[in-house]
Amino acid sequence: MTGYIVGTISERIAQIQVSLPASVRLIAITKQVPVEAMREAYAAGIRDFGESKVQEAEIKQKELADLPDIVWHLIGHLQMNKAQKALQCFQWIHSVDSLKLALRLDRLAPLLIQKPQICLQVKLLPDPNKYGWTPSELLADLAKLDQCQYLQIKGLMTIPPMGLSAAEVVELFEQNRQLANKIRAQNWQRLQMQELSMGMSGDFSLAIQSGATMIRLGRILFGDRQP
Predict the structure, then answer these.
(1) What confidence tens digit (pLDDT) does each residue in 9-34 have?
(2) Cα(67)–Cα(47) distance, rounded to whole angstroms?
(3) What's the longest Cα–Cα distance across the chain?
């Protein structure tokens, strides 16, 4: 995939978009990326931008207020005390990683004009550096999640642990797809499960072949982040 790391931001985006299926949504991950680079990505057709921190997103949203059709995605861990602010800043929250957080968002969401769109973050392999439900934990919480009236629960998000082989990454992504299918087959009222947010710069092609509908690309578009 290093072949993509050439040219300008616009050229990189064009190289990736030409091979993307129409069913896959490209989210540009802009943690620590300057606003000028985001404007270049916007000019190249990107409308979905992902941030890891609420505070950084707030600053950028003010600087990009002249681009009102940007869709903002939160992809980093959300602390409980930032839940209300996150709902105000983001149309999508991919990192809803516990029942407690989901219920808090649901309590706050009636104050919004539009219901927030969320993904439930699952941890399919043990990983001390990642948050999320295990599959068994998520299945046990589905009945309570289905009672969330003000959240649009769209699907699942996952991040593979570091150090996996390509075959192991594909297996993990397939497990995520199968888990979404299993939940969808149970015909819950509010758990839609049509979105699979999975795949980053190093493994997005594997995610696409495993059914990803949203990929989250940062380094491959903008280069390495500054320390």
Answers:
(1) 999 999 999 999 999 999 999 999 99
(2) 9
(3) 49
CB 12 within 8 A of CB 2: no
Closest CA to 222 of 68, 1, 7: 7
We find that the CATH architecture of domain 2-222 is Alpha-Beta Barrel (3.20)
What is the distance between the alpha carbons of residues 208 and 199, in angstroms, rounded to a whole number?
7
Run of H or E including 62: helix 54-63
Q: What DSSP letter does each residue of 128-168 carry, written as one string?
A: TT---B-HHHHHHHHHHHTT-SS-EEEEEEE-PPTT--HHH
Predicted TM-score (pTM) of the model is 0.95
Q: Determine the Cα angle at 225 with ends 23 and 82, to 5°.
A: 75
Q: Rounded distance, CA 154 to CA 105, Å?
A: 15
Tens digits of residue pLDDT in 32-91: 999 999 999 999 999 999 999 999 999 999 999 999 999 999 999 999 999 999 999 999
Q: Give the domain ranges of the chain.
A: 2-222
Count how many Cα atoms sit within 13 Å of the Cα of residue 206 in the half-sphere of its side chain: 21
- Amino acid residing at 165: S
Which among 47, 57, 50 has a CA at the least distance from the CA of 17? 47
